[in-house]
Amino acid sequence: MLNPRTAERPILLVDDDTRLLRLLALRLESEGYAVAVASSAPEALQRLGELRPQFVLADLRLPDIDGFELLSRIQGHSPGLPVAILTAHGDIPDAVRATQAGAVDFLTKPVDRERLLSCIRTHLGGGTAPGDDDWRSGVITRSPVMEALLDDAGRVARMDSAVLLTGASGSGKEVLARAIHRASRRAARPFVAINCTAVPAELLESELFGHRRGAFTGAHADQPGLFRAADGGTVFLDEIGDMPLPLQAKLLRVLQEREVRPVGETRTLPVDVRVLSATHADLEERVADGRFREDLFYRLNVVRLQLPALEQRREDIPLLVQHRLAQLAQAGAPRRLYSAEAMEALVAAPWPGNVRQLFNVVERNVALAPGRVIGAALVRASLGKRSIGLASFDEARAEFTRNYLRQMLELAGGNISRAARLAGRNRTDFYKLLSRYSVDPRPGRRQDGPPPAAG
């Protein structure tokens, strides 16, 4: 099924179900992809060297070599080659384990056409075939929360409305802004981004709107400014909440009049840009205390898209890690992979710095790992005190019970019998609970201990 007339590297499909192979191949070929197939693991390994595929979709249950072994051999032969796993619904726990071992994604049978195409476009870094979803190829996700956000972003991209992107630092606001630009009618024109906190306040106006030669000390030549540089395209104003008030008034005028006045210039110049802005701050709060203009806020906040924190999309962490490992390998870094235990530590960890922090930890791990496999100890060392993330069910239940018992004691003024009645237990049972959960009944005394044994 590989087209010999094209030099395009194919997608390699591996499954012992020949009917499914034909169906998947037809779907992909209809989208313009070159496709190669293999009905066994040995055949797939042989075709790796012959075809140098750009993507592999392999069934987890093959008759000759276990899917985990095939994944390991592909990684050894072609490090960085994206491999997705095809699985039946009952094998999903194994598929998740395969993802932790290095697979970039997994798809369940019967394979949904759009899910298949989205998976391939995502992990080919934009794909080789034209498609309506190419604009979102830079957003690495399989999270339902992110998918819903991308649906909204795709719809708003078709309009010229101003969009305000909110979310914690490092959550990917600029990545989403670039995706919106790619999906818009302005995609062929420039995308220009500026961080309003990265430029000194006295220079920010010149940076945005330009200046005439001699307008201020150091202005040795005319400069057009970012708005005019982006004419016909998109300007992305990151951390807009930190823009100085005097400049906010000038930005409002630019948005209303669609023209800019460079510093030192007496006339205005027309400009056609779409403005996307972003902030991690609460702009309503800043409007209320006078630090942000209300009229500018309403001008920028025509559509608001809220990016979730990384802890709200933990299922994306293995995908993001694999994406970052591939980026680092392409830049010349050693090729590394995470052990299953190390990946579990990453998934469970708190991420106050969100995707940016995750990528920094991955880069640090790649630099410091003594061998090809990154272990859990190195991950925990990189995370430091933040390495403890999600509590287990038993830990969470024990902490809740401890707090509940303390509250009952406090309400009862330290009287055990009264506290037991409040809790709906007899005095003996209540004493047993205090002992089991290491709660000292005396006021002000706490004995925080490990969660009790299950049972």
Q: Describe it for me?
A:
The modification 4-aspartylphosphate is found at residue 59. It holds the Pfam family AAA_lid_14. With 455 residues, the protein is an alpha/beta fold. The protein folds into 4 domains: 11-136, Response regulator (Rossmann fold, 3-Layer(aba) Sandwich), CATH 3.40.50.2300; 144-306, P-loop containing nucleotide triphosphate hydrolases (Rossmann fold), CATH 3.40.50; 328-387, Orthogonal Bundle (Helicase, Ruva Protein, domain 3); 391-455. The chain contains 19 helices and 14 strands. The longest helix is centred in the last third of the chain and has 19 residues, at 393-411. Residues 1-7, 125-131 and 444-451 have low confidence and may be disordered.
In short:
With 455 residues, the chain is of the alpha/beta class.
